[in-house]
């Protein structure tokens, strides 16, 4: 896995679009490291994401997220990186990601996202009526993922099919 400009494959996308599953499969196919930004936030702070939101608010979380993302992208090792759904909200994060490798946006329709996130109550931004929160946030973020180099609609694809599409683009960029 060698790239002239940036050796990272970076997955962005709304919650429930499959970043976590797809990043695991990609890292195994590419035989490289996988880094999950949320997992790194939890391991480096010693706090759950929901606790950080509760104690420091969303902006406090975004500050930590930006710092951890920059740290991960500064590492030389080729890697697949799964970001949290809101990591794209800051321009500095977007610029850094674009300069670090191939940025792939995973998308899915609202019904599929709601289906995927409903059984998981760990996401602070989806507390309460998850379906209505998803619809509101999807509207607020409708162009937030457009900056990515490529987008893959995962609505009716299996994780393996998503990986195949991404591998094709990745192969062309080498
Ligand atoms: C967030 C998405 C979450 C996590 C945090 C905020 C968001 O990650 O970073 O709860 O703002 O969309 P996932 O996209 O992995 O669920």
Walk me through what this model shows.
The chain is 52% helix and 14% strand. It has seven helices and five strands; from the N terminus they run βαβααβαβααβα. A five-stranded parallel beta sheet has the order 2-3-1-4-5. The chain is globular. It starts with 7 loop residues before the first strand and ends with a helix. The mean pLDDT is 94. Bound molecules: shikimate-3-phosphate. The site of shikimate-3-phosphate has 10 residues, from loops. It is an enzyme of class 2 (transferase).
Task: Kindly list the characteristics that best describe this protein.
amino-acid biosynthesis; alpha/beta; Rossmann fold; 174 residues; P-loop_NTPase
